[in-house]
Write a structure and sequence with these properties.
Shape of chain A: globular
Strand content of chain B: over 45%
Largest interface: A-B, 23 and 28 residues
Structural class of chain B: mainly beta
Largest sheet of chain A: 5 strands, mixed
Strand order of the largest sheet of chain A: 1-9-8-3-4
Shape of chain B: globular
Helix content of chain B: under 10%
Oligomer: heterodimer
Structural class of chain A: mainly beta
Number of helices of chain B: 0
Distance between the termini of chain A: 37 Å
Number of strands of chain B: 11
Number of helices of chain A: 0
Chain lengths: 112, 117
């Protein structure tokens, strides 16, 4: 799986958009970009994933650059409950046997 | 959405005893489940891949005789920490993916915090 690079930490004001970047310059054509988050003392929570098109769901938006070498997770209106470690992971998606390899992630602190 | 249930959420045991952790996929079948371990202030590390009806695959450095994995059905995998020692104290997390759905995401249980005294 391609390696990802994320800033170790970020702050965001409550109610503002949180934009979390991720670099995955060695991503291959069949690898998807997945985002998970882990709130303290809980298991990781799936947020969103995409291949090359931008994606949006009720939790967040995922913007993938045209060359697919980087992406940004956008939480449009961050709340205090969004404080968590956010993991960007790339992996080949079409195989039930593929595990996820976690890097260091970005620790997002949402402040009042 | 897909739900993975993990039990117990917290366990304290004495050194030398064994502890069993269960991981269930509640509304889907999973031919493969994954077991992770997370030490404080660190990221998740994959321990082993649990395969229904066959032997688990362990990552390098993980003792298969110490961490026994059983995946007896398409909805249940168990991890048994045998002869636990204080250094086995950690946060253990399982994950599973719907085998019938293409590139569906992995879903995680809420973890089991093991404390060995």
């Amino acid at each position: 799986d391609a390696k990802t690079t994320q800033p170790p930490s970020m702050d965001c004001a409550e109610g503002r958009a949180a934009n979390l970047p991720c670099n995955h310059s060695t991503i291959s054509g069949n690898e998807y970009v997945y985002w998970y988050r882990q709130i303290h003392s809980q298991g990781p929570q799936y947020i969103i994933h995409g291949l090359k098109n931008n994606e949006t769901n009720e939790m967040a938006s995922l913007i993938i650059t045209e060359d697919r070498k980087s992406s940004t997770l956008i939480l449009p209106h961050a709340t205090l409950r969004d404080t968590a470690v956010y993991y960007c992971i790339v992996r080949v998606g079409h195989n039930a046997g593929n595990m996820l390899t976690f890097g260091g992630g970005t620790r997002l602190m949402v402040k009042p | 959405g897909a739900v993975v249930s993990q039990h117990p959420s917290r366990v304290i045991c004495k050194s030398g005893t064994s502890v069993k952790i269960e991981c269930r996929s509640l509304d889907f079948q999973a031919t493969t489940m994954f077991w992770y371990r997370q030490f404080p202030k660190q990221s998740l590390m994959l321990m082993a891949t649990s395969n229904e009806g066959s032997k688990a695959t362990y990552e390098q450095g993980v003792e298969k005789d110490k961490f026994l994995i059983n995946h007896a059905s398409l909805t249940l995998s168990t991890l048994t920490v045998t002869s636990a020692h204080p250094e086995d104290s950690s946060f253990y997390i399982c994950s599973a993916r719907d085998s019938d759905r293409g590139h569906s995401p992995l879903h995680f249980g809420n973890g089991t915090r093991l404390t060995v005294t």
